[in-house]
Amino acid sequence: MLPFSYQSVRDVGSAIAEAGEAKEIPPTAAPSQFIAGGTNMSDYMRLGVNRPSHLVDINCIEDRSLKTIEIGDPDIRLGALVRMSEVEDHPEINRRCPMLAESLKLAASRQIRNMASLGGNVLQRTRCEYFREISWPCNKRNPGSGCAAIEGFNRQHAVLGTSDSCIATYHGDFAQALIALDASVDISGQSGKRRIRFAELHRQPDDRPDVETTLRPGEIVTAIVMNVPAWVARSRYLKIRDRQSYAFALASTAVAIDLDGDIVRDARIGLGGLATVPWRATAAEEVLRNKPLTEENAAMAARAAFVDARPRQHNAFKIELGKQTLVRALLEAREMRI
C-alpha cells in the first residue's frame, strides 16, 4: 500500500473543499477520494490496485439528511451514509419494495452490510480477476495496456454493455433495484447541487473503461431518491450464484410488475451479474406491457433482454441463465399477494 494523507470532515462543504485541494501526488498515485465504509476501497488499496494520495473521511458529517431514511408517499429518500443493513431491516421498505430489501440482504456478509454505506455501494468498482491482479494488463488500471480478460478465462464476465476495451462486470446488487425503480441521485460539488437519474450515473466502458461514472472531480453523492408506487410491493430480487453465501451473481434480476388481473400494466426490470453497468432491460419491459403475464410471454421478454448480448469463450452460458432467471423472477412476482 502506498503512503497517503487522511482528513476527517464534519460537513459536505468541507468534504468537497478537502477533496479539491491541491495535494502533492506521487507519480504512481491517484487524486483524493472519499471514504465511508471502505469495504471495497480498502481491499484494492492493499492490493495496490487503488492508490489514492489523499482520503477524505465523510463518516463524521453532521448533516443528518445523509444518515436518515425518509419514507414518503410515494417517494423514499435514502441518505448516502445510511448503512446497507439499516435499509434491509426497515419494515416499511420490506413491505413496500421487497426487491430493494432483498437486493441488500443478498449482497454481502452481514458484517460488510453493517459497515458499507449506500453511496459507496453504488459506486463500487466494475472489476474482474484481471483488474485485481496488477501483473495483468488492464485498461481500467492502466488505460491503453489492453484487456487480459478478452482472451483469458472470462466465465464471470459481462455479456451486455461490453466493448473491445473491457468486459468486466458491475457486481452490485442494490443498483439493479435502483435502476429498475428509475431512482435518482442527489450530488453536491464545487459547482453546487444537482440531481441525475441513477441510469445516468454509470458509464459503459467504450474506449475509456477507467472512467466509470459521470461524477465530476470532487463531487459527492448525498442521497438516493425513488418513487415507489403501491404496486411495487409486487417485486422480487433473484440472485443466481455458484454458492449461496457471499458470492457475486452469475445472473440476477430485480423485477416489479403492475398487474390488472393477469394483464401487465407496467413492468420494471434490472439485470445484474451480466453487464458492465447496472442494466435496465427496457426492451423486455416493453414486450410485457398490455399482455397477460404467462410463461410464454415472460420467455419472450427474456429473449428481448439479450438481443444485443456479446458472449465470450467461457461466459456464453450466462445468456440462457439470464433468461431463465428473469422468467423465474417474473413468475414468482406474479404469485405474490399484495
Strand content: 15-25%
Using DSSP, what is the number of strands? 12
Mean pLDDT value: 95
Largest sheet: 5 strands, antiparallel
Task: Give a short summary of the structure.
With 338 residues, the chain is α+β, with helices and mostly antiparallel strands. The protein is built from 13 helices and 12 strands.
How would you portray this structure in words?
- The protein is of the alpha+beta class.
- It has helices at 12-20, 41-47, 84-88, 91-96, 98-105, 110-115, 118-122, 129-132, 148-151, 174-180, 282-288, 295-305, 317-334; strands at 5-8, 33-35, 54-57, 69-71, 75-79, 184-189, 192-197, 220-227, 235-240, 251-260, 263-272, 279-280.
- The strands form three sheets. It has a five-stranded antiparallel β-sheet with strand order 4-5-8-6-7.
- Strand 4 and strand 5 (75-79) form a beta hairpin.
- Helix 11 (282-288) runs antiparallel to helix 12 (295-305) and helix 12 crosses helix 13 (317-334).
- The chain starts with a strand and ends with a helix.
Task: Describe the protein's topology.
Blueprint (H helix, E strand, L loop, with lengths): L4 E4 L3 H9 L12 E3 L5 H7 L6 E4 L11 E3 L3 E5 L4 H5 L2 H6 L1 H8 L4 H6 L2 H5 L6 H4 L15 H4 L22 H7 L3 E6 L2 E6 L22 E8 L7 E6 L10 E10 L2 E10 L6 E2 L1 H7 L6 H11 L11 H18 L4
Parallel strand pairs: 1-3, 2-3
Antiparallel strand pairs: 4-5, 5-8, 6-7, 6-8, 9-10, 10-11, 11-12
Helix pairs in contact: 5-10, 11-12, 12-13
Main traits of this protein?
single chain; 338 residues; alpha+beta; 13 helices; 12 strands; 20% strand; globular
